[in-house]
Predict the structure.
Amino acid sequence: MKNIPAPSKKRLLTLARLLSQQEKAKITSIELSALTGWGEATIRRDISLLELHNGVSNGYDVHVLRDAICEILQVSSVSSDKHRCCIVGLGKLGEALLESSVFAGSAFELVAGFDTNFNKIEIMKSEIPLFATLDLEKKIRSLKIEYAVLAVPDEKAQFMSDRLVACGIKGIVNYTNTVLSVPKDVRVEHVNTVVVLTGMLAVSSLQK
Amino acid sequence: MKNIPAPSKKRLLTLARLLSQQEKAKITSIELSALTGWGEATIRRDISLLELHNGVSNGYDVHVLRDAICEILQVSSVSSDKHRCCIVGLGKLGEALLESSVFAGSAFELVAGFDTNFNKIEIMKSEIPLFATLDLEKKIRSLKIEYAVLAVPDEKAQFMSDRLVACGIKGIVNYTNTVLSVPKDVRVEHVNTVVVLTGMLAVSSLQK
DNA sequence: TCTTGTGAATAGGTTCACAGCA
DNA sequence: TGCTGTGAACCTATTCACAAGA
């Protein structure tokens, strides 16, 4: 398989989700363009990188395309090769994110929640196993957790991030307001509401 | 002022936050590079686009630089020109996001929460005014709300997005799992945990 | 000697424009 | 005629490499 550039991969992933929301059987690059706001040429190029040659002259087959993207980009939802993740910090936000149902059908499985407050993890009822932050390192390793969702107070964010990185975590979804410093091979996505809103001001409403 | 490219703006915004977390008075591009993982040249180029000529040979003045970024990129936190935003959908997640304190010191002000459930908006206690979704259009216009945080159930996401767009909303922070179709001049940031996690798989751990 | 700022080179992604297939 | 797939051109951002200031 050819090497697909990261921006194309990201768009393809969005396309896959978009296709799941579609009822029709066939769809053209023009329609996808209208739905996403991206140029038609960009969409055709992205899809052609998959080397399917499936959509010749008649538009793409919605299901075939969706499945092909998931398979080629390796975001299958087969339980055997799911990526395991956890939530660190069970405040209001962390608790709200602790919904196992949202992970259903995804390439991820939520296998743990962590909080420093012993009482909380005993009292809280959840389908997901909860642990004390004290056992973070032990549990991350034993449960083979690869990704973490960070929802601790801002001032503890960098400290917890360091601990996660030390355990070999591959990526952090950062809901805190703190900018995290991590080694280059660890992915961080800063999705704090205020941060994301501020980022919107920086873009001159060109593309998404 | 020269036109600053969007990627540089985004990095500068992150730098500004990073500088706020710093105690020292001076900082060099090498140190910023270590903190962010970006190339030193990239950082120097970004900063030079601000045309400050402030850091000559001795590193940058942390406070001067931070303030300059905020001013030039227009993300000031002066209450008079704050951007007003609202949260749509007050389920567990929406409720957790309804913390006015997280907006303190930002360029944004949370002025409303919406939910279809009349009981909920009466019973819920919050510092932020709560309204019925029925009054969405009326309130968005009267309160001059420019940005929305979307936390409704997936199946209502596109519908609510359409209503928000019809009111002239400028940007949507999308916590749902649904891919939204909006006009090109409306910004959407898809921050649903599973979506963000999946996006991480697409990036070959190059840059952030 | 350390650091910034920046022309010039390079790398990378997007868009054009059209050949080719149904 | 309506669509895809793709070389080639274009455009944008990053990186190099070095001059100049402290």
Chain B touches chain A through 66 residues (CB under 8 Å). Chain B has a mean pLDDT of 94. Residues 28-30, 44-45, 47-48, 53, 55-60 of chain B lie near DNA strand C (CB under 10 Å from a C1'). The CA atoms of residues 17 and 66 of chain B lie 8 Å apart.
